[in-house]
């Protein structure tokens, strides 16, 4: 492959990075803004709470499908058209949700909304791989993670604010505005970053084959699993912390909300620290720092649950360290994985997104199985996550000297 095809001439600007972060902000806004309105939806549509809960499932199913579609499509047609399409589809889905006269149509519209969000988020990660390499990619992914970490902090507050002046339908009109903002910023600030010489031909069969090619790249799989298992551990905290802290430890609702926000803020701040450290320290070494901190926190929480009743302050400290440690894992592992499949960044982005989403979707019900009665399921999920992360990073990933600086298939793909 010619040198000029290996890097995009696109200049990385604050506007570009902010726009890419916005494309990935759909899931927290589309869930955290909406869940407080569940009772209103149940009453207004004369339905059951379980069916309203199905609207969340529908959204995440659409999100996964959108990533599987958007990633390969962007490898074939370039990045600009699919990411704009994703924003438009997400907007149309949000309009359908706001106007839905029945729970069935609301579920269907949520699938469409998730589909558009999935397309946009998968292509956004591929754009980042197009415009950056090596340490710069790791730094930008850390910044993207920091910006993305703000969304779960802002979304619940925004949703509560909207519900004080409107109804659940108003929440979806706000999400329509978010979809339009995604589309407009993509049109304005995201150029075409994949030249025709690096695009792939073929239809559905070729797309499926590329997923297989990505999964045969051992370093990619190892780093992808490192971040996915870490997400598995983190989701155990997200899903069950309310039972542990409020039911078992007696923490009030408002203090719990402040603490939950503080753990997200710690992750955001350490993501920015990580971005400054990349270049001084190799991303793999920073991953090991994060895994060590995460393991320490999980072991402390496990001892607290299984051996002795940990005081509230130490339980909170364990949760805080667990969340903060992810700042050194997600961005670096994602960058190292993406760096092994730059020749099909869209497909690789889709695989990473779907596997991590599946890990989090599986962790949530498993970790919260004990409810307020016991935290044993939560710590077991955390232990599986940290052990899996160490195995993936230490065994699945080859020794650093054996990992090529770029995907070995680039030259072969360029000749096709």
From TrEMBL:
<dbReference type="InterPro" id="IPR036259">
    <property type="entry name" value="MFS_trans_sf"/>
</dbReference>
<feature type="transmembrane region" description="Helical">
    <location>
        <begin position="286"/>
        <end position="306"/>
    </location>
</feature>
<feature type="transmembrane region" description="Helical">
    <location>
        <begin position="350"/>
        <end position="369"/>
    </location>
</feature>
<feature type="transmembrane region" description="Helical">
    <location>
        <begin position="49"/>
        <end position="69"/>
    </location>
</feature>
<feature type="transmembrane region" description="Helical">
    <location>
        <begin position="81"/>
        <end position="101"/>
    </location>
</feature>
<keyword id="KW-0472">Membrane</keyword>
<keyword id="KW-0812">Transmembrane</keyword>
<feature type="domain" description="Major facilitator superfamily (MFS) profile">
    <location>
        <begin position="16"/>
        <end position="401"/>
    </location>
</feature>
<feature type="transmembrane region" description="Helical">
    <location>
        <begin position="375"/>
        <end position="397"/>
    </location>
</feature>
<dbReference type="InterPro" id="IPR020846">
    <property type="entry name" value="MFS_dom"/>
</dbReference>
<protein>
    <submittedName>
        <fullName>Bcr/CflA family drug resistance efflux transporter</fullName>
    </submittedName>
</protein>
<feature type="transmembrane region" description="Helical">
    <location>
        <begin position="220"/>
        <end position="239"/>
    </location>
</feature>
<keyword id="KW-1133">Transmembrane helix</keyword>
<feature type="transmembrane region" description="Helical">
    <location>
        <begin position="312"/>
        <end position="338"/>
    </location>
</feature>
<dbReference type="Pfam" id="PF07690">
    <property type="entry name" value="MFS_1"/>
</dbReference>
<feature type="transmembrane region" description="Helical">
    <location>
        <begin position="171"/>
        <end position="190"/>
    </location>
</feature>
<feature type="transmembrane region" description="Helical">
    <location>
        <begin position="254"/>
        <end position="274"/>
    </location>
</feature>
<dbReference type="GO" id="GO:0005886">
    <property type="term" value="C:plasma membrane"/>
</dbReference>
<feature type="transmembrane region" description="Helical">
    <location>
        <begin position="107"/>
        <end position="128"/>
    </location>
</feature>
<dbReference type="GO" id="GO:0042910">
    <property type="term" value="F:xenobiotic transmembrane transporter activity"/>
</dbReference>
<feature type="transmembrane region" description="Helical">
    <location>
        <begin position="140"/>
        <end position="165"/>
    </location>
</feature>
<dbReference type="InterPro" id="IPR011701">
    <property type="entry name" value="MFS"/>
</dbReference>
<dbReference type="InterPro" id="IPR004812">
    <property type="entry name" value="Efflux_drug-R_Bcr/CmlA"/>
</dbReference>
<dbReference type="GO" id="GO:1990961">
    <property type="term" value="P:xenobiotic detoxification by transmembrane export across the plasma membrane"/>
</dbReference>
<comment type="similarity">
    <text>Belongs to the major facilitator superfamily. Bcr/CmlA family.</text>
</comment>
<keyword id="KW-0813">Transport</keyword>
<keyword id="KW-1003">Cell membrane</keyword>
């Amino acid at each position: 492959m010619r040198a000029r095809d290996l890097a995009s001439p696109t200049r990385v600007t604050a506007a570009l990075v902010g726009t890419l972060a916005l494309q990935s902000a759909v899931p927290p806004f589309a869930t955290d803004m909406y869940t407080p309105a569940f009772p209103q939806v149940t009453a207004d549509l004369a339905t059951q709470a379980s069916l309203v809960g199905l609207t969340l499932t529908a959204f995440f199913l659409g999100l996964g499908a959108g990533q599987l579609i958007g990633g390969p499509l962007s490898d074939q047609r370039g990045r600009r058209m699919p990411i704009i399409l994703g924003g438009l589809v997400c907007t149309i889905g949000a309009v359908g949700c706001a106007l839905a006269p029945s729970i069935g149509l609301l579920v269907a519209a949520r699938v469409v909304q998730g589909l558009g969000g999935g397309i946009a988020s998968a292509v956004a990660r591929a754009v980042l791989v197009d415009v950056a390499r090596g340490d710069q990619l790791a730094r930008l992914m850390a910044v993207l993670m920091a910006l993305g970490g703000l969304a779960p902090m802002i979304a619940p507050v925004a949703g509560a604010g909207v519900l004080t002046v409107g109804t659940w339908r108003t929440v979806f009109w706000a999400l329509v505005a978010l979809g339009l903002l995604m589309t407009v910023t993509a049109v304005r600030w995201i150029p075409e970053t994949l030249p025709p010489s690096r695009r792939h031909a073929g239809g559905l069969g070729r797309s499926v084959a590329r997923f297989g090619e990505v999964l045969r790249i051992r370093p990619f799989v190892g780093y992808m699993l490192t971040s996915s298992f870490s997400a598995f551990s983190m989701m155990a905290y997200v899903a069950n912390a309310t039972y542990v802290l409020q039911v078992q430890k007696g923490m009030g609702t408002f203090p719990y909300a402040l603490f939950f926000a503080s753990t997200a803020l710690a992750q955001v701040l350490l993501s920015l620290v990580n971005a400054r450290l990349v270049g001084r320290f190799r991303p793999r070494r920073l991953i090991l720092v994060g895994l060590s901190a995460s393991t320490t926190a999980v072991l402390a929480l496990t001892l607290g649950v299984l051996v002795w009743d940990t005081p509230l302050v130490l339980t909170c400290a364990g949760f805080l360290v667990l969340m903060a440690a992810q700042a050194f894992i997600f961005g670096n592992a994602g960058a190292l994985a993406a760096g092994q499949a730059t020749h099909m960044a869209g497909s690789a982005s889709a695989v990473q997104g779907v596997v991590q989403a599946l890990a989090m979707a599986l962790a949530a019900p498993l970790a919260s199985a004990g409810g307020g009665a016991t935290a044993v399921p939560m710590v077991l999920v955390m232990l599986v996550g940290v052990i899996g992360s160490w195995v993936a990073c230490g065994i699945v990933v080859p020794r650093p000297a054996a990992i090529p600086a770029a995907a070995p298939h680039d030259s072969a793909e360029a000749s096709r």
